[in-house]
Automatic annotation (TrEMBL):
Pathway: Amino-acid degradation; 4-aminobutanoate degradation
Broad class of the protein's primary localization: mitochondrion
Protein's UniProt name: Succinate-semialdehyde dehydrogenase
Gene name for this UniProt entry: LOC111138616
Keywords for this protein: Disulfide bond, Mitochondrion, NAD, Oxidoreductase, Phosphoprotein, Transit peptide
EC number of this enzyme: 1.2.1.24
Matches recorded under Gene3D superfamilies: Aldehyde Dehydrogenase, Chain A, domain 1, Aldehyde Dehydrogenase, Chain A, domain 2
Annotated localization: Mitochondrion
InterPro entries for this protein: Ald_DH/histidinol_DH, Ald_DH_C, Ald_DH_CS_CYS, Ald_DH_N, Aldehyde_DH_dom, Aldehyde_DH_Superfamily, Succ_semiAld_DH
Subunit annotation: Homotetramer.
GO MF, one annotated term: succinate-semialdehyde dehydrogenase (NAD+) activity
Length: 545
């Protein structure tokens, strides 16, 4: 039987029964989570008040049914520290049940026509857009990001479903001319099988659809393990996928939404159980693909586990993006790009600028205008407040890392131009901070901060800037500002990163490939290349013709 399973054949012998004791509940039979903050009076800007109760789910989602667990873990609002709700703490039994459900669904989903898969993904996109305001409120509540940013994320997230709904119909193979007249050669592209999708908290919706959209378009099925900080967004996507918001008849609605049970599964879990759940996903013989976004350290652990069964892997890992400003740059444009690149989601993005390398001739002007822009345009507050542009960091551990980087830099001679300390609003808030006189021996110069800290390093020559930018084990994104065409070509080619922004601080889009080099990961997401991560090539030779 092991051989059959290793081949992922849908003609394998009968699979073992689902683990005993799992209380799968039909859709619609589970009440909405009563403990969530929508019921809390006085929450800033209304909090989750008025949110559709159907979107607030606390159980896992396996085989089209809601799956409780023996234990639950709390999810907190990073702004206030208030408990948003208790979510099913799925472990090994629930994970294996989800994998089994996904595998059984794959046996039929792989045969669904590309046109039909395209149509179903488009319906899912439409449902997300119809419910974008509620989905954004969930993101703000559990991640803390400003509501306007959360609304932008939901649209961005939905666009991946739209994009891959179109790409589903463009999975083409090849015809190869052979050296002999009696043969014909074809190359087919076929779905890999069950994909385990492990996602981070900083983009709790978009990181799911960027992976899941490609997987489903290719004909794969998925098991999603969301970050413990932000499980509600993943569960809300399951609810939207099931189509509950179109009517009050859940069975009818699942049919209207169209995506079959078992194609999309969600297993939330606490940090305590994350290791065992991740190990099951990486070692289960029914899983063919691992797609992970997170830290480089965790990615290495998952790669180790996946190596035992030689699974296909995609890894989008850490970054340490340089932002270079050359003397020829337009300073105002460079400052605008720096603001966009650095402070989105309070600096908690893997592609945000982490080091600002500024040429000596333009250095003082850039630092002055950058500081003015920070003081004028950034407003720290609860994400539900309309004025807020900078929400809290995800937890106190994240704040402590920013504090450590600032104090280390100052102790070694850096100057705090603005910010530099925790904000009075609470333990998870930190002031947007700009440091000058930063040198290479400081932690912030060679470690990813993942927070609202902008360290400025002065340089003299182009060669020096490129050397500093490349002096790291990671290479996800890089940015630079210049008006010299020859320099633009040289630097764009020399930067050791997977993505380059030239005179541009925001570079992500669904149409373009996302991914890095070095220890920033393997593979690409989004774009026409993203779907290839979930496809296997098969060469077929016809003889005797």
């Amino acid at each position: 039987m092991a051989t059959w399973l290793r081949l992922r054949s849908c003609r394998a012998p009968r699979l073992p029964p689902a683990p005993a004791g799992l209380g799968l509940r039909p859709r619609g039979s589970v009440p909405a989570a009563p403990a969530l903050a929508s019921a809390q009076p006085g929450r800033s800007a209304g909090g989750l008040a008025g949110l559709s109760a159907a979107l607030l789910r606390t159980d896992g989602f396996v085989g089209g049914r809601w799956l409780p667990a023996a234990a639950a873990f709390p999810v907190h609002d990073p702004a206030s520290g208030a408990e948003l709700g208790l979510v099913a703490d799925c472990g090994v039994p629930e994970t294996r049940a989800a994998v089994r459900a996904a595998y059984e669904a794959f046996c039929s989903w792989r045969g669904v026509s590309a046109k039909e898969r395209s149509s179903l993904l488009r319906k899912w996109y439409d449902l997300m857009i119809q419910n974008k305001d509620d989905l954004a409120k969930i993101i703000t509540a559990e991640s803390g990001k400003p509501l306007k940013e959360a609304q932008g994320e939901v649209v961005y997230s939905a666009l991946f479903l739209e994009w891959f709904s179109e790409e589903a119909r463009r999975i083409y193979g090849d015809v190869i001319y052979t050296p002999t007249r009696d043969r014909r050669a074809l190359v087919l592209k076929q779905p890999l099988g069950v994909a385990a999708v492990i996602t981070p908290w900083n983009f709790p919706s978009a990181m799911i659809t960027r992976k899941v959209g490609a997987a489903l378009a290719a004909g794969c099925t998925v098991v999603v393990k969301p970050a413990e900080h932000t499980p509600f967004s993943a569960l809300a996507l399951a609810e939207v996928k099931a189509g509950f918001l179109l009517s009050r008849e859940p069975d009818l609605l699942a049919n209207q939404a169209g995506i079959p049970p078992g194609v999309y599964n969600v297993i939330p879990c606490s940090r305590k159980k994350a290791k065992e759940v991740g190990e099951v996903l990486c070692t289960d013989p029914l899983v063919s693909k691992i797609s992970f976004t997170g830290s480089t350290a965790t990615g290495k652990v998952l790669l180790h586990h996946a190596a035992g069964s030689v699974k296909r892997v995609s890894m989008e890992l850490g970054g340490h993006a340089p932002f270079i400003v050359f003397d020829s740059a337009n300073v105002d444009q460079a400052v605008a790009g720096a603001m966009a690149s650095k402070f989105r989601n309070s600096g908690q993005t893997c592609v945000c600028s982490n080091r600002f390398l500024v040429q000596r001739g333009i250095h003082d002007s850039f630092v002055k205008k950058f500081a003015e822009a920070i003081k004028t345009n950034l407003h720290v507050g609860n994400g539900f407040e309309e004025r807020t542009t900078q929400g809290p960091l995800i937890d106190e551990k994240a704040v402590e890392k920013v504090e450590t980087h600032v104090s280390d830099a100052v102790s070694k001679g850096a100057t705090v131009v603005t910010g530099g300390k925790r904000h009075q609003l609470g333990k998870n808030f930190f002031e947007p901070t700009l440091l000058s006189n930063v040198t290479g021996d400081m932690l912030c110069a060679h470690e990813e901060t993942f927070g609202p800290l902008a360290p400025v390093i002065k340089f003299d020559t182009e060669e020096e800037a490129v050397a500093i930018a490349n002096a790291t084990d990671v290479g996800l994104a890089g940015y630079f500002y210049s008006q010299d065409p020859a320099q633009i070509w040289r630097v764009a080619e020399q930067l050791e990163v997977g993505m380059v922004g030239v005179n541009e601080g925001l570079i992500s889009s669904v149409e373009c490939p996302f991914g890095g080099v070095k220890q920033s990961g393997l593979g690409r997401e989004g774009s026409k290349y993203g779907i290839d991560e979930y496809l296997e090539l098969k060469y077929v030779c016809f003889g005797g013709l």
